[in-house]
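hey so i finally got around to running the thing on that chain from the lab meeting. sorry it took forever, my laptop kept dying and i had to restart like 3 times. anyway pasting the input first so we r on the same page abt which one it is
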Amino acid sequence: MSSSVPALDQAAHYRHPSDTLFGRVLPRLLHASGWTRLRRALARRWPMPALTSDACEVIYLSWWVDLRHAPAPPPGHHFISVDGRTPYTILSYRHRHFGPALPGPLRALLPSPRQSNWRWYLRRDDDAGGATVVLFDRNVMDQLAYVAGARACSDAMQPHLALHFEHAVHGNGDGCTRIDGGQGSAPALHVQWQAAAGWLDEDWAAAFGGRAALLRLLTCQDQALACTADGRWASTRIELPVALDQLQPLRVSAPLYCPRLQALGVQDQTPLAMRLPQVPFRVVSERLL
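ok and heres what got predicted. didnt touch it at all, straight out
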């Protein structure tokens, strides 16, 4: 692992975007060991309820990263790699009424936060040719209630709060994502894209045996892993029924800004970009490994 890349447990620690009294107290509450032990004990008896959302304007940006920049994988897993490189994706979208599935139609009263997942791709050592498993590197949201709620109630989802989060897609497919972390732990990203006339994926598709296999690997998963701030591994089961024929090619239209990508050595690499207009999303369960 590159010395420029902090371990995932270190990266999971929360810092608030502003250095106010509230911003200094909140991380202590969210990382309180007593509450973490109690929550985990309760979760063994009463599992978390299923969560659901109608995600929209999902933008995938993917890079090839040298394996030496990747973190240590979870036990029993290895990175998907080709010629010493592994895919890394920044996935940004907007929820539509994200919350517990139980209320049914009343879920429409819930807010619709923006979210950005930064992730690696794994396979299990005993299932080398099997399903792709996502490894969360960073998670960002734009609403404090969701950030604090997720951190207080979940091990697998430990998001960071953005000071400013813009994720806009226009009718012609052009758009931008802008994430500013302020003084907090949310990673920064400024990127613009445009609709592309065709797929710009020749080397990607060749590496994975064709476009369909490539798109399936990058978008179709039912499990995600994350490392907690106290060094535990957590697994979450999800349902994300992506229809591959709905994916649309994009191209990044201006130089992007992202210190995280600079640390990974891919700041100047042209990403593989695509758009998924909408997809139902469901968090089924989670557990500590």
